Amino acid sequence: MHRRNIHGSDRAFVHEDALRHSPSLQQGDPALILVKGLARKAWQSNRVRMGMALWLLGVFFMMFAPSPKTLTTEMKKRYEQMIVEAADAPAYEKALRKYQRARFHADEAKVWFWRFREPHKTIVRDREKSVSELKSKLDHLDADREKKMTKAKQFVGIWSDYGMHDVRNRFWGAYDKGKMFAQQQTFYHMIMYVLSGRNEDILSTILNWVFVALANFTTGLIGSLFYFIFSLIGMIYSYQPDPFSAVAFFVLGILGAGSVVASYLIGVYGMVASGMYVVSKAAARNALQNEARHHIRHEQR
Q1: pTM score over 0.85
Q2: Are 260 and 65 in contact (CB under 8 A)?
Q3: Which UniProt keywords apply (predicted)?
């Protein structure tokens, strides 16, 4: 029985027909349908809406909010003068140099087994006594300087431009440390992975690096968040605000830091998920095309 040869136009028709009747194209993408359904259902929840509102409030506070307290030009000049007076402490610098020299002089006398040898034991004891006296004087001057700094900060208030600038600097400093930790750990992992000489395909290697980077960035940023929280407590104490302002600023600071960190992590995880989705879609389409080609070859036999 003679079989009709399939020409190029017929092959294209069969190929398009196979793709058109594929279940994924007829019913829509299951992943997108699931995500849309979950998002629609979640948005109907009051808790989700409240969470979104708190997230927006936190991002606004940490990145865009102006200071609630306005300072006059005279107040700013007075504050800067108080800071200069607190930082300019000739007595403290002089005491610090004396302490450093005494510390070096005492360490210089600590020879081998000096605790059991005379006169080295007596010499070290006498020099350590002088070091302790100078250290006590230095601590007293340092406490006096900190009091002046606290007085200057209390003068402008924690809700001023200086307070807002201070909390943002502390957060971004902790944030950068967390990112640096993640980058270093990922780099070390890549070096150890290459040196281990594992014979794996390129896709497995890339996926391994991606998931390790995600774990390191998650750990680093969450760690930086806790570091910022402890730093925030000391910062609030240095401004000596009233109890209500202290609690409100602490809550907003934690909310802002958590919102920014969550935004970054969600963005990173979203990019990775989008990349994996695109790759999986391309693989599925290639499978459909291979199935169509197999069908065409089968028809030609």
Answers
A1: no
A2: no
A3: Membrane, Transmembrane, Transmembrane helix
